[in-house]
Amino acid sequence: MEFLPVCLRLTESPVLLVGGGEVATRKARLLVRAGAALTVVSPEITAELEALLAAHNGCWKKARYAPSDLDGQALVVAATPDAAVNRQVFTDARRQSMPVNVVDSPQLCTFIFPAIVDRDPLLIAISSSGRSPVLTRILRRKIEAMVPAAYGRLAGFAGRLRQLVKDSIRQDSARRLFWEQVLDGTVAEQVMAGQEAEGERLLRQRLLDTRALPVGEVYLVGAGPGDPDLLTFKAARLLQSADVVLYDRLVAPSIVDMARRDAQRVYVGKRRADHSVPQTEINQLLVDLALQGKRVVRLKGGDPFVFGRGGEEIELLAEHGIAFQVIPGITAANGAACYAGIPLTHRDYAQSVRFVAGYLKNGTVDHDWSTFRSTTETLVFYMGLMGLPVICEQLQAHGRAADTPVALVERGTTLEQNILVGTLATMVDVVARAQPAAPTLIIVGDVVRLHQSLAWFGAAASR
Predict the structure, then answer these.
(1) Is 234 a catalytic residue?
(2) Which of 99, 121, 150, 347 lies 20 to 30 Å from 78 when distance is taken between CA atoms?
(3) Helix, strand, coil percent values for the chain (each to nearest 5)
């Protein structure tokens, strides 16, 4: 290990920056954010650096570097384009046993600047010991994607209540276990969702009686239309923290597989006229599992609140006082339409879009069809495969032209995606020949005309 990772408190500490160009300006941004009392030595400086110094009570010494500039400084950073000056700064600083950094010259550094993931007060530093700055930046981007911004809020919350927990739990090992449960459980999720008061209430409740059976939490997670890459960061994080995962047939197996290996997986799938687990039983199962102290993810295809019956599930949770969160997902209309190259709105074709339930109920698709006449509105029918003949018939009967374009997207956003294109007059026959399987999405409107020119998804070729 060439460098020992440490964190320096620079608040109001005198720091010298030698150089005034773009590189020096980048270092100055970090130093003033850390609260340093910054002095810059350089004949010229950038306008941004001058503004930084003015905003943070810094000092600009408009001159070339001299060894006396180090007097009274806590550390020094050299960032000039002159290699001889940089080496002189290093030599002078070493003579005074002063920490020194010469930018882009690891051999002239007693400390280096790592790449930083900033979730203040939580900081994550990544360093290659100066060997590959580009690699450290790549790793920083990957870590930033995995660490939610709300972790900073969680760190502040833990710091604020640290003494309370220490006073309540005297034994080190027991206190450490308590914090592990708090920071990786329901309390943490409440805090990161912005509900700090509720998080503190739950934490204090646990402190009062650590023997009480904990009440879990339920997360209604929108799994999107099929492509695992469309899952949100928050959805992926909660899925990987769940004790139990409930999923149905609309959720891609590759998404279910993202759950941690020891999580219990419960299939609650429903097909048309074949509800293997009735909705009322699913609602009750969520309650029962949460009351056992489980963290439960209810994976729902698309978005939980767009034809997903998510509202019914959280009503029962609310009645029992069980904490829950709803994590939005990309609904099928957005995902399938984008992958098919069909913009749902377009200045030349459609100025509005309407999401419509397309399933049969008692043999009919029950809508006020007279409201669907507008040729400047795109209609998207969910679960409309069986009801397609009724949809095409009623739209024509209530004013839509027979040559209105129609697209049926089968298994949208997946590698098996297929698109069938026709019109209100021909679509029933097109579907009868192709025999697509659910899940499907039906798009009606002039925007369908753009499919051939805008489609980019490789598996989306029309039949």
Answers:
(1) no
(2) 121
(3) 40, 20, 40
- In eight-state DSSP terms, residue 107 is G
Active site includes 361?
A: no
Homologous superfamily of 14-113: NAD(P)-binding Rossmann-like Domain (3.40.50.720)
Q: Please give the structure tokens belonging to residue 266.
A: 């419960």
Find out whether 328 and 304 touch, Cβ atoms under 8 Å.
yes
Q: Looking at the whole model, is its pTM more than 0.85?
A: no
Bridge partners for 381 per DSSP: 356, 442
Please tell me if the domain spanning 14-113 has the same topology as the one spanning 214-330. no
Task: Give the Cβ contact number of residue 422 at 10 Å.
Answer: 20
- CATH 3.40.1010.10 applies to domain 214-330: yes
Joined together, the tokens standing for residue 353 give 């879009």
The Cβ-side half-sphere exposure at 29, using a 13 Å CA radius, reads 8
Catalytic residue among 227, 248, 294, 300: 248
Checking if the pLDDT of 457 tops 60, the result is: no
CATH topology of domain 333-454: 3.30.950
Report angle CA 219, 223, 228 to the nearest 5 degrees.
130
pLDDT at 147 over 60: yes
- pLDDT tens digits for range 300-338: 999 999 998 899 899 999 999 888 999 999 999 999 999
Q: Please answer whether residues 67 and 43 qualify as being in contact, where contact means their C-beta atoms are separated by less than 8 angstroms.
A: no
Count of residues for the chain?
463
Say if residue 362 is exposed, middle or buried (CB neighbours under 10 Å; 0-12, 13-18, 19+). Answer: exposed
Cα atoms in the 13 Å half-sphere on the side-chain side of 177:
8
Q: Environment class of residue 293 by beta-carbon count within 10 Å: exposed (0-12), middle (13-18) or buried (19+)?
A: middle
- How far apart are the C-alpha atoms of 442 and 385, rounded to whole Å? 8
How do the domains of the chain map onto residue ranges? 14-113, 214-330, 333-454
